[in-house]
Amino acid sequence: MKNFKIDIVSDVMCPWCVVGYKNLETALGQLKDEMSADITWHPFELNPDMPVEGQDLNEHLMQKYNLTEEQGDENRKNMFEAGKRAGFTFNFDGKRIMINSFDLHRLLMWAREEGKQTELKLAFFEAHFTDLKYLNQEDALLDVVESVGLDKEEARNILHSDKYVQAVRQEQNNFKQMGITSVPTFIINDKYALTGGQPSDSFIQALKQISEEEAKQDA
């Protein structure tokens, strides 16, 4: 059984990050008799300068990418379909906001130590993109934390301290120095990288190819 180390550089605010992960999950499910993976999530902020109150998402995307309303509608349609294929529901019916995700990354670093990082990351994705919860509101954020079995009061204490601030900044800088400027980026066994919301077939092909290459190197 081949076991991969997979590091995912990602932001909760990035829809392609959840699409890519769900497709990776599907690929690993199809390869479960041959391969497994230890997955670690790492921080990336799409909008580090975003104020705490956030911004209407449609307005933000139109400003950031100079999209027309029609292009915005087309983007949402494509995103919905990509999510559907990956097994994830994007909800475009209510008011959605883009927020500063730094505190989410601090909680995810804590969740890594508690062995619940992937559970929390997926819960954040669902809260933000499906349930349209405002994760810049402390109570909403802590409810998500509690939903995966993590201690709500400990999470609150983290939010009201500077715990994990330096750790998150350090990881962000490390990956920036490695040349990572877009997410999701999937780093496999510290030497191979895939970027973007790849389909599951691409992950299957890549994992098999890496497995074969490493088998040759070990021979």
Q: How many DSSP helices?
A: 9
The order of strands across the largest sheet is 2-1-5-6
Helical proportion, percent range: 40-55%
Radius of gyration: 18 Å
**Unreliable parts:** none
Structural class: alpha+beta
Sheet bearing the most strands, described?
A: 4 strands, mixed
Range of strand content: 5-15%
Shape field: globular
Distance between the termini: 16 Å
The SSE order reads EHEEHHEHHHHHEEH
Overall strand count: 6
The chain-level mean pLDDT equals 95
Domain DSBA-like thioredoxin: 6-207
InterPro entries: DSBA-like_thioredoxin_dom, Thioredoxin-like_sf
Pfam families: DSBA (PF01323)
Protein name: DsbA family oxidoreductase
Question: Can you offer a commentary on this structure?
Answer:
InterPro entries: DSBA-like_thioredoxin_dom, Thioredoxin-like_sf. Residues 6-207 form the DSBA-like thioredoxin domain. By secondary structure, the chain is an alpha+beta fold. It is built from nine helices and six strands. It is 54% helix and 14% strand. Helix 1 (15-30) links the parallel strand 1 (2-10) and strand 2. The two termini are 16 Å apart.
